[in-house]
Amino acid sequence: MPKKLLLLPPLSVSSAFRVPRVTPAARQAMNAARTGYRVFSANSTAACTELAKRITEDVNTAVMELLIMAYALKTACARNIIGVIPYFPYSKQSKMRKRGSIVCKLLASMLAKAGLTHIITMDLHQKEIQGFFSFPVDNLRASPFLLQYIQEEIPNYRNAVIVAKSPDAAKRAQSYAERLRLGLAVIHGEAQCTELDMDDGRHSPPMVRNATVHPGLELPLMMAKEKPPITVVGDVGGSIAIIVDDIIDDVEGFVAAAEILKERGAYKIYVMATHGILSAEAPRLIEESSIDEVVVTNTVPHEVQKLQCPKIKTVDISLILSEAIRRIHNGESMAYLFRNITVDD
Fold this sequence. Notes:
The protein is an alpha/beta fold and 345 residues long. It has helices at residues 24-35, 46-56, 61-75, 103-114, 143-153, 170-180, 195-198, 252-263, 282-287, 303-308, 318-330, and strands at 5-7, 81-85, 118-122, 137-140, 160-164, 183-188, 231-233, 240-248, 268-276, 293-297, 312-315.
């Protein structure tokens, strides 16, 4: 019986589209045969074709493949089954919004049921996700590699300001600023709706029919939030602006932030993130924006996006993953990989 088996799934959900010995064309044909329907796409623009491809690809293939492999190893009486999942899928769905489901908690339960006994991941969207699991989770950090890139690859980085794209990202930005001994700026607010946008009914309350409220159960009315126009808290004039975040997927927010920073006097703008999903039209939007460079790690494969946009750069984080695997396999302490890491990092 083997002492330990290390389960190495694909580095991301998107990488699992390439199942061994099954071509995408063959898989699409099999899916069409099983489901009985087909998706048709217009060929007028490349964006339309690309969107249709993404719609027909099943992003849950990687999750199912991981569960099946883990269960197979469990059935084979493996003592420990360790999953290396650099980008944990559904990590943004870790809180209940209104009456919605917490998909990340569901996935954690499925992984435990399939037989996983340990997970190595990187920069969870919310650190509290570790509490969803009934087994150890090592949440590694990519920040040392990104900080090293700033110091070695950004000329005159001492004249830079670390920028949080929103108040929610302020803690991460503060950590970067303190470690690099740089200034900090926070972008607050949102683009204001035009009068035409206000006429589409999105801000009007829904019609209530046959609603009855018990006289003794009347609740106080909660005032709706109203964000101010976009503003920058902090000085970025004549400086390099470095926006930091954990995930960059839909880039509209980053593009809008770059425009504001440019208006406030920043002469060069970088975006640093751990997970570069960069879906849909992200490469084109980055290429046409005021952003000078987008730096992400290789937790998620993005070779196609780099071909479409030369501004995208990659930082390799395989070293820390391999060291984590080695230490777990040899029963060594993992504390070395978390030295100088605080709760807010």
